[in-house]
Sequence to fold (349 residues):
Amino acid sequence: MSKPKGALRVLIAGIGGGSLGLEIFKCLRLAGGYELIGTDISEKALGLYEKGFKRTVLLPRSDDTTYAQNLLDVCRSENVQFVAPGAEKVHSILNQERDIFQEAGIHLLINSREVVDLCSSKLKTLLFLQQHGVPVPETRRVESESDCEGLSRFPYIVKPSEGAGASNLVFLAENTNEIEFFIGYLLRRGYKATVQQYLDSRGEFTIGVLSTPEGHVVGSIALRRFLESKLSISAQYHDRIISSGWSQGEIRDFANIRRQAEHIARVVGSRWALNIQGRVDADGTFYPFEINPRHSGTSYLRALAGFNEPHYLLRYLAGIQPLPELQIREGYYLRGLAEAAVPLPEVKR
Fold:
């Protein structure tokens, strides 16, 4: 695209409290040089009242196709050049409705359709990696309790195979009876279930690998998760821990871990930001247990460390030179909760 004049106008769709959208917003606010528009379908979304947006818009609740059209209408009225999805559901809708934005000359800040489709299934992603020689935990999809036969590397994680909004439905099974119970629990609630070997390691990482839309790996950043804080723990049983989505921890070079993650990004053919979560065994081998083809909930922590992914990619797409320097300032990167008070006359209607 031709180099734009003035500040880049970016719309972030989905800006509720704790959302990916607010992470992207904080990254771009930190970088400066942007005019930011925010949208959400709930008047209770924290981002609608956040200082730093040029304007926020409450969209009507609708089906997927109408939502995309409503979003496009806001883009046109606000002269938006780029759209960043800030929620899993929005990410899924925009992946399916790419064409109407492309025809309007608006760039969607998402990975390629092929990568998004692959990574929409946890099981399909891990099987794909395994077929390409990447070490992964033992993983299988189950459609009934009888599919558990042959599982012997207890404990196992039992979780939905795909779809957003089920992060609280992750269970740790120590024996056959427990694994059958949890599988039945998910199946009765309409979820497809995946069983995955629990990796008994406190070396848990979340790694961001940044690639250009042409597939060139620009760089990566690794955060070793702290699993002592209540905020960062989803479930704990004696020495077994399942982490939450609220990552915090130590950022250092971790060259061996990053190298393995960059290889994974090349294997899947990433064309944007890729967020890889996994654990490391005693030999230093990294085992990914989940891959998300998007920016991460730790994006702002990474930006504070000097690795501002959305800022870099936006400047790259806009053809603005020189490109921002991506660096790593080693240290502890911590997080907590923030509060906001919105007087009733200021509530979006």
User: Anything to note?
Assistant: The two ends are 36 Å apart (CA to CA). The mean pLDDT is 90. Residues 8-109 form a domain with the Rossmann fold fold (CATH 3.40.50.20). The CA atoms of residues 20 and 345 lie 27 Å apart.
